[in-house]
Amino acid sequence: MSGAGYAALLCVLPxxxxxxxxxxxxxxxxxxxxxxxxxxxxxxxxxxxxxDPQSSRATFRLAQLTRDPAxxxxxxxxxxxxxxxxxxxxxxxxxxLAREGKRAEALREYDIAAQLAPGERDVTVxxxxxxxxxxxxxxxxxxxxxxxxxxxxxxxxxQELGKVELRIGKPAAAARALQHxxxxxxxxxxxxxxxxxxxxxxxxxxxxxxxSHDSDGNRVTRFGxxxxxxxxxxxxxxxQAGHERISASSVSPASLNELSARLALRPRAALRIDGxxxxxxxxxxxxxxxxxxxxxxxxxxxxxxxxxxxxxxxxVQRAALDASPVLLAQHALRTExxxxxxxxxxxxxxxxxxxxxxxxxxxxxNHRTRLGAALALPLSYRFELSGQYHRMSFAHQTSAGYFxxxxxxxxxxxxxxELGDGAPFTLALDLGAGAQRLAQHGAQMGPWQRALxxxxxxxxxxxxxxxxxxxxxxxxxxVAPDAVSTSASGWRYASAMLSLRLAIP
Length: 505
Description:
Blueprint: H1 3-35, H2 38-51, H3 56-65, H4 69-82, H5 87-99, H6 103-116, H7 121-133, H8 137-150, H9 155-167, H10 171-184, H11 188-201, E1 204-214, E2 219-232, E3 235-248, E4 251-268, E5 271-284, E6 292-304, E7 311-320, H12 325-329, E8 333-345, E9 348-361, E10 364-380, E11 383-394, E12 407-420, E13 425-439, E14 449-463, E15 466-476, E16 492-503
Antiparallel strand pairs: 1-2, 1-16, 2-3, 3-4, 4-5, 5-6, 6-7, 7-8, 8-9, 9-10, 10-11, 11-12, 12-13, 13-14, 14-15, 15-16
Helix pairs in contact: 1-2, 2-3, 3-4, 4-5, 5-6, 5-7, 6-7, 7-8, 8-9, 9-10, 9-11, 10-11
C-alpha cells in the first residue's frame, strides 16, 4: 500500500467506527423508545446524532420527542433534507405547524405529501384534521366528505366529520355522520356525541334569568322564555318573551316587556345571520309618564373568510335603554347601526369598528358615535393579545338620565381566550385593562383614569339534551362602550345571565 493510500485509510477508519457505533446506538435508542420512556429516548437519539448527524431515523424520532416546538420544527426540516421523498415527514411537519396555528404553512406541507403519496389516508384525513384544528371547519367537513365518498367504511372519519358538523351548526348532518360511525364501530364517545347532535337538531325551550347592578344603585332583574325549532339544517325559527324589572333606591320601579319572533341562519360555517322582530312595552310607574308600546328588534350578520384571518360583522338594533327607572320613564330608546372589520397585516390582525346611534327620549333626540381600532396578535385561532383605542362622542349633553360626555377616549390592552369545543364545555373570556379620559360639553379633556372591562361566556352540556349557558359582563370606568352609564363618577357595572336550553325529543 502506498503512503497516500495508508493515510487515506487512517482517515476513513475513525469515520467507519463512528458509523458502526451510531448503528449500535440507534438500535439501543429504538429499544428504549419501545419501552415508552420519553426522556431517556430523547437522550438516546440525541447521542446517535452526535455520532452520526446524517441519521434520518434519529432526527425524526427526536423531533417527535422534543417538547420545544422550535427545535421540533428545525429537526423535521432537517429530516426532510435527508429524506425529501418521505410523504410522512411532510405530514408530521404539517401537524406541528397546525398546532402552532400556522394553517397556510401546514397546508403547503400537506400539498407536498399529497403529491408524493396520492390517495393515502394519513394525508387526506390528516389534512382535514388540520383544517378542523386551525379554525376552518367548513373546509374540513368538505375534505372528510370527499374521503368518505370513496371510503364509506372509515368509522373514525365518520366520527370526526360528525364532530366538525356540530361545530359549523349543522346538527342533523352531524347526527347522520355519527350514526354511520356508530353502526361501523360502536363506541361510547360516539354514542354521547350522537345524542348531543340529535338534541341540538330537536326543537328547544330556553328559560333565562339574571340581572345587573351598577354603582348608582340601579338594579335590573330579567326573566325570559324562548323556543325554537329547525325548519332545515342550520335554519331555526322561534319566539321569545322577556320581562324586566328596573329599580333604584330613591325612585319608583319600572318594567320592560318584550315579545318577538326570531330567525337564525347558518348557510355556511363562515356566515351567520340572526335577528328578531317584535314589540317593546315600557311601563314606568310614579313618574307621570304613560306606558309606551313600540317596535323593537335586531339583525346581525357575521362573515369570515375561509382562512379565518379576515372577518366582517354588521348589525342594526332598536332597543330600550333599560339601565334605570328614570330612563324607562323618559321612554328612552336606542336605534344603532354598526360594523366591525378585521383584516390581516402579516402575522397581526388590524380591526376597525364604528357605530352610530340615535338616542330618543321624551322631547329630545341625541346622537352617539363610537369609533375604535385594534392591533391584535393571534397566538392561535383561540387566543390573542391586542392593543385597542376607542373613541365615543355625544352630539350634546342631556338631562334624560344617562351620561353623555362630549368625548371619551380609551386606551387598553386586551386579551381573548377560548377553551373547549362544546363537548362538554366552551369557555370564552374577553378582558381589557387600560385608561380612559373624558371631556364634558364646553370643557377641556380631563386626566387619564383607570378603565377595566370583562366579558365571559360559558356553555356546559350537563346532559345530552340539556345545555347550561352563563354570560357575565363587568365594567369599572366612567363610561362603557356597550352599556349605558348613568353617572360620570367611578361608575361600576356588573351583569349575569343564566339560561338552560332543553331539547324536546
